[in-house]
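Data deposition worksheet. Section B asks for the primary sequence of the deposited chain exactly as it was used as input, without tags or linkers unless they were present during the calculation. Section C holds the resulting structure in token form. Section D is free text for depositor observations; keep each observation to a single sentence. Incomplete worksheets are returned to the depositor.
Section A, Depositor: J.P.
Section B:
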Amino acid sequence: MRFSLIPFLLLVVPLAEIAAFVVIGGQIGVWATLGMVLLTAIIGSFLLRWQGVGLFNRINTEIRGNRVPGRELVHGVMILVAGVLLLTPGFVTDSLGFLLFVPAIRDLVWRSVKDRIVVQTMPSGFGPAAGQRQSGDGVVDLDEDEFQRNPDPSSPWSDEDERLPGPGKRGGGSSNGL
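Section C:
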């Protein structure tokens, strides 16, 4: 049986959050605890905006340099997760969220997952190379005078088959008048 981390975390994290609320609330009081939770959410939203804008600029720089921004995209996902963790009420999730806002921690995570990530690109946009198809795609571009039909008399679909009414033959069309 394979151990899955997600159900384990869905059980353990809320229990750890409740325990942290009880311990910290007992030490500093209810209102101070709620104030800290609200303050971490506000700080998290500012950090998300500040680091997100900087990351967006780095992604644009990589794209303009014709490089795949793999590292920056993974950092973007981690910054998004950090923001969600900081907006989620709780001290355990706030601690994890603040850790993910540290670039050195994100680099450590990036180094551990970069060999398992595959980035695929597709050409797009406007210009001379946009929309060009690969050779051998089955499209033949001919003028009318370059086209010549060579019927195969052995084909069941040829005009030589009397069972098939075709254009110019009697009985062409369907029985419903179309």
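Section D:
The two ends are 63 Å apart (CA to CA).
Residues 30-64 form the longest helix (35 residues).
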